[in-house]
Design goal:
mainly beta
């Protein structure tokens, strides 16, 4: 789960079960709307110099998943030739969440270095639990299937991102931890967000300046805590990430907001 978490969902339920799932795992969405598109430039620290190495884009549209109205969110990252010389990065993430942001389906197809793999998760909510059906296609082509059921809500890197955009940070204290249970097709991650406070940030690519909330995404693995991503989101209702600092096995990377459209609410965090 450490590798490229940047920026990283189900069987149709009976009406009663779905209603319970919404109460348990959903959250009211005030941050975004269908038709939102975000664009980023990616940079990598190469011999103490930050070099542009690719782009990323995220889109959210309205769709139907198993006869359920849903948000379909896609995240695509593409490294350029400069990055390919160090590390190939071709990631495509796809998420379906219902209109209350309950996860329904998740897929990640990733070429990272010389390795290519596919993760899929299908969510269902029997008896108010969260059931995951997991599928991994290994680099060797081997298919691995397993299932697990939890009493708590479980998310993937896309659905938790959409959920986190709707958190009300006005009540958070600096240093406060927010549990973020995330699974891929292999294991459940013991992970959480840490609220780091507020900062002003100027996006070099666009020269726009924003008041931001700062969070760190931390995962515990092998008995140690690892900060994977530090991200800056606009201090307004939209909570759009304008900067992401990614701490990878092969070095440090950053993503800076290049452009946006279809934003739901006025960007009141923007400093004129």
């Amino acid at each position: 789960m450490k590798q490229l978490k940047h920026i990283t969902l189900t069987l149709l339920l009976a009406v009663a079960s779905l209603s319970a799932a919404k109460a348990q795992c959903g959250i009211e969405n005030k941050a975004f709307q269908a038709g939102e598109f975000l664009y980023y430039n990616l940079y990598f620290n190469w011999k103490f110099i930050w070099v542009k190495v690719g782009t990323a884009s995220m889109s959210t549209v309205e769709a139907t998943y198993n006869n359920t109205r849903a948000y379909k969110t896609s995240l695509i990252t593409r490294g350029n030739n400069k990055l390919d010389k160090m590390f190939t990065m071709r990631d495509t993430l796809l998420s379906y969440c219902d209109m209350n942001l309950n996860p329904l389906y998740f897929r990640k197809g990733a070429k990272e270095g010389k390795r290519y793999y596919v993760d899929e998760l299908w969510y269902s909510y029997p008896k108010n639990n969260c059931h995951l059906k997991m599928h991994r296609i290994e680099n060797s082509g081997e298919h691995r299937w397993k299932e697990a059921e939890y009493q708590d809500c479980i998310y993937d890197m896309m659905s938790i991102f959409l959920r986190a955009r709707n958190f009300d940070a006005s009540h958070y204290k600096k240093g406060e931890k927010i549990p973020m249970p995330i699974s891929d097709a292999k294991h459940l991650s013991n992970s959480w967000l840490v609220y780091k406070g507020k900062e002003k940030f100027k996006v070099d690519d666009t020269k726009e300046k924003f008041n931001c909330l700062v969070f760190s995404f931390v995962e515990r693995e092998d008995g140690k805590n690892h900060e994977l991503i530090r991200f800056y989101v606009t201090d307004d209702v939209n909570h759009i990430p304008v900067r992401l600092d990614m701490f990878l096995k092969f070095g440090s990377a950053k993503a800076f907001l290049k452009g946006y459209k279809g934003v739901r609410s006025p960007m009141t965090s923007k400093i004129q």
